[in-house]
Each structure stands twice: as structure tokens, then as C-alpha cells.
Amino acid sequence: MNNEEIIAKHPNWREEAKELDISMVRGGNKGVKSKVEIATEIEAHLAEIEEANRVVIPSAEELVTWERTLEVIPDGVQTMSKMPARHVSPLYPTYIDKGKGCHVWAGDKEYIDYPCGLGSVLLGYADDRVNKAVKKQLDNGTIFSLPHKLETVLADKLVELIPCAEQVRFLKTGTEATMAAIKIARAATGREGIVCMGYHGWADWYGITTDKKKGIPMSYSKLSGQCTYGDKDMVREMFSLSNVIQKEVAAIIMEPYVYDADEDFLKWVIDFAHDNGALVIFDEIVTGFRTKGFSAQEMFNVMPDLTCLGKAMANGIPISVVCGKTKYMAEIQGDCFVSSTFGGDLIGISAALETIKILEAEPVIEHIWAMGQRLKDGFNEISKDLPDTKLTGLPCRTFFETPSELHRTLLWQECIKRGVFFGYAQFINYAHTEKDIDKTLNVLEKACEVLKDNWGEPNKAFDEGVVPASATVRHR
Ligand SMILES: Cc1ncc(COP(=O)(O)O)c(C=O)c1O
User: Fold this and answer.
1) Rounded to the nearest whole angstrom, what is the distance from the C-alpha of residue 201 to the centroid of ligand 1?
2) Which domain range does residue 168 map to?
3) Is residue 59 part of a domain?
4) Closest ligand 1 atom to the C-alpha of 178?
5) What CATH number did the domain enclosing 372 receive?
6) Residue 111 domain-assigned?
7) Which of 212, 262, 273, 463 is the most buried (most CB within 10 A)?
8) Residue 216, domain CATH
């Protein structure tokens, strides 16, 4: 800047100098400063202040190391399924940076992804149409102090699509939805006991049935029990005021299937519960919108009393649902307290409406079942000579079965090195193509060769530092 420009920039130089405490006279007896000198000093002062106030935010790349993550986030993760111990550490990437379709990237390394955001990504990562619907909603506001009409539009759609849904409440996480369903069932029956079958989140009535009991009042252990899917005797036992559940059972909450589905068992459970004064809650947090007909209750033609939905329903954007028959849902109009600020959040609602619109218009569910079947058949053919090594489960969610964690770790080690990312459960999304599946099968073929060559002692073929990937805690 030349002198004229500096003066022009500070037309109120007298006031500015005063405010900044800049003296207008020279030290000693040397007279007053010129306008240019004062304006130049003002400039220098302002630059100093700006520099002192400059906030330097390090980029994630500069700041983040796994050590730092562990210092500021317990276990370094927000959900157990993401713990490094669940994967082949240290070969799996520590962080995922971005995803698109069926691919994820860690730095510039690209993977074909099968955990699909723990089952929540149904159309594909960062789906353009869902993103567009959400961005439109962002511009109009996403949360208000009165209901929004889109809440009714989505509730209406769920009443149309989910057989037992006559009324609907929106929440944010799967755990909230199952907590609400249990509360409604207890309110409606006046009973306290809960029979669980599957995984239902981190609420105390479920946590007490797992190994992670710390922080839960021990008295809860008399109220909940876990049954094995398909085991009728175990269910009967839970209802007999046995040592496990010492109160009358309010509800059986179950995933309608995890591994193979048993339609007769589903029918039996519903009849048995009703004959014994209990309700049946289907936890369709995973099966909802991945199963033919949008829900397992539709596919198997059975009618629970209440249902929980979440995960894939909005392609991974947070929203969950408790829905069911009006005579039970009406409990939350009374003194049964279910209430959440973000229940009416329109990001989740607009994402769910767009996802469901696509599901109704396009063969999404058929596609994920076909691709899942291709993966399952392909792997089971490749692994047919390896004892007890197969993909099990229905095509929309499959699981690797191996004789041991060591065998599975070696299999996954050889896959991750070749760009295929497997997790505890393998989901498919709409973006997985036949080409992706076939590429995956090629990788699995190579991995099985390594596994076969090291069958007796798979850990001998572990890369440096690899520790066995532990199985997740999940009841069958
Ligand atoms: C069947 C089922 N129910 C409930 C939950 C809990 O959902 P969230 O983790 O969103 O609380 C999960 C999570 O994986 C689930 O798979």
C-alpha cells in the first residue's frame, strides 16, 4: 500500500489511534506525528491483533493419531463393532475417510465394503438422491417447535408398509426404539419380565443378559433373560417364574431372524406369548427394509404386536421407529413416558421418505438378495473342501463360519490386503454390482488357497503384528 492508500483506509484515524492507544506525538520534544505515520502505525497494530487472534485449527491429518483418539474417546470408538479387536489389526485401516456406493476409502486406499455402515447403508454410501433430499430439507430447517407435516407422511407410509404398524413414533437410535417398545409392553401388560432373542442395543434390560453388566442394578437380572432362537423349551422355561426371570413376562423381543429364519418358530412364539399374556416385539432394526416385502413380518406372514425399525430405513441417516397396534401404542399418550426432541428431526425423516420412495420404485431388495446369494453360493463353492468354512445366513446378511477365530482372521487378512473389507456381518447394498461380487470372489479364492496351505496352524501365516479378530458378543 502506498501512503495515499493507507490514509484512505483510515479516514477516522484520530478515533482509531485513540482506541488503539497510539500516541499522536513523538517521544521527547520532537512534535506531532504525520497522518501517514499514524495510519501506518494503526495498520501495524491491527495486523498484530489479527495475528494474535488467528485461530489455528490443525487439520484432522495433522491432529489425529490412534494414540490421540484413545486419549479422548473411550476405546477409540462409538460402538463396539468398530473396535480394532473386531478386525484384523493392524492390517485393517484405523479410520475410514469416505465412502461412495459400495466402496470406502482410507487415505487413497480403496476397498469393496461389506459391513455397509453396520447394516445401515442400503442404497450405497453417499447416495445422490438421498443426499439431495436431505440438502433440500436443510435449506428449509430441520427441527421446529411444532410438528411438521412430513412426520405424518412418513408415519402414513410405514402404516401402509409394515403389517403391525397402526401408529408410529420416531426416535433416533435402535436402542431408543427397543427401549420404547419394552416400556410400552410393560405399561400395557402391567408386567415386568422380558425375554430377549437376538441383539437389542445397550439398554439395561438387555445389557443385564450379556457379559457387560457393570453399571446395571443387579435386581434387573431377575427381570430379563436371553433365549436361543428356535429353542421352544427355553422360551417355556423363561415363562415359568424360574431362576432366570422371576416376574411375569411382559414381552418377548426378538430379531425375526439373524442366521436362518424359522417361520414355524415365529408363529409358535407369537401364539405362545399371547396364550400366556405377553406381547411380541419384532426388533427389525436390521431386517426391516432389507427383507422381501420390507419386513420379516410381511415375508413370513406373521403379526407381532410392536415393531422396531432403524438402520437401513434412511440409508444410514439416523432415525428409528417404534410402531405397532394402536391399543398398545396408545400407552404413550398416557403416563408411559416416551419423548425426544430429535424424534421429529427432518433430516432423518426426509432421508427415510426418499429411501423408501426408491425402494418402492426400484428392485433394491431383489438386488441385494440376488447379490448376497451370488456371494454366498460363490464362497461356499470355493470353500467346499475346507471343513466348517462357509457363509451362512439369509442373502441380505451373511456371516463367515470358520472352525476358529484364527482361521477367520487369516481369511480376512488375505482379503483386506487385496482390497476387500469384511466385518462381523456381510451386508449388500444396491451399489454392489455383479462385477464387485465376482472381484470379491476372486479375492476369496486366493485367500482360501492361503488358508488351505496353513490349515493346521493358520496363525503361522499371520503378517507381522496381527492378532486374531475376536467374534462379536451376539446370542444366537
Ligand atoms: C437388531 C438390533 N437391534 C437394536 C440395535 C441397536 O441399535 P443402535 O446401535 O442404533 O442403538 C442394533 C444395532 O446393531 C441391532 O442390530
Assistant:
1) 5
2) 143-344
3) no
4) 4
5) 3.90.1150.10
6) yes
7) 273
8) 3.40.640.10
Collapse the DSSP code of 400 into the 3-class scheme (helix H, G, I; strand E, B; otherwise coil) and give the result: strand
> Is 201 a pocket residue for ligand 1 (Cβ < 6 Å)?
yes
Please check whether residues 150 and 240 belong to one and the same domain.
Answer: yes
Q: Which of 333, 309, 350 is nearest to 148 (CA)?
A: 350
Indicate the top mutation candidate among 178, 204, 285 to test ligand 1's pocket, ranked by most ligand atoms within 8 A of CB.
285
pLDDT digits (tens, 9 = 90+) for 278-288: 999 999 999 99
End-to-end, the C-alpha distance of the chain in Å comes to 75
pLDDT at 58: 61
Type of residue found at 239: F
Q: How far is CA 231 from CA 224, 228, 265, 363, 417, in A?
A: 17, 6, 9, 35, 40
Query: Which of 344, 373, 388 delimits the end of a domain?
Result: 344
The reply to whether 265 and 399 lie within a common domain is no
Q: Are residues 312 and 412 in the same domain?
A: no
Q: Give the residue, by CA position, lying nearest to ligand 1 atom 3.
A: 200
175 and 286 both lie in a single domain: yes
Distance between CA atoms of residues 127 and 122, nearest Å: 9
Residue 125 is given by DSSP the state: B
Residue range 373-428, pLDDT digits in tens: 999 999 999 999 999 999 999 999 999 999 999 999 999 999 999 999 999 999 99
Q: Is residue 106 part of a domain?
A: yes
Scan for cell 520534544, then name that residue.
Answer: 29
Strands of 236-382, DSSP E: 249-254, 279-283, 306-309, 320-324
Distance 338 CA to ligand 1 centre (A): 18
Residue 320 CA, closest ligand 1 atom number: 10
Instruction: State what percent of residues in the chain have pLDDT above 90.
Output: 82
- Tell me the helix, strand and coil percentages in the chain, rounded to 5: 45, 15, 40
Mark whether 182 and 277 lie in a shared domain: yes
Split into its structural domains, the chain has a count of 3
Measured CA to CA, the distance from residue 84 to residue 320 in angstroms comes to 27
Any domain includes 469: no
**462 vs 455: CA distance, rounded Å:** 12
Asked whether 178 lines ligand 1 (CB < 6 A), one says yes
User: Which of 315, 344, 373 is the C-terminal boundary of a domain?
Assistant: 344
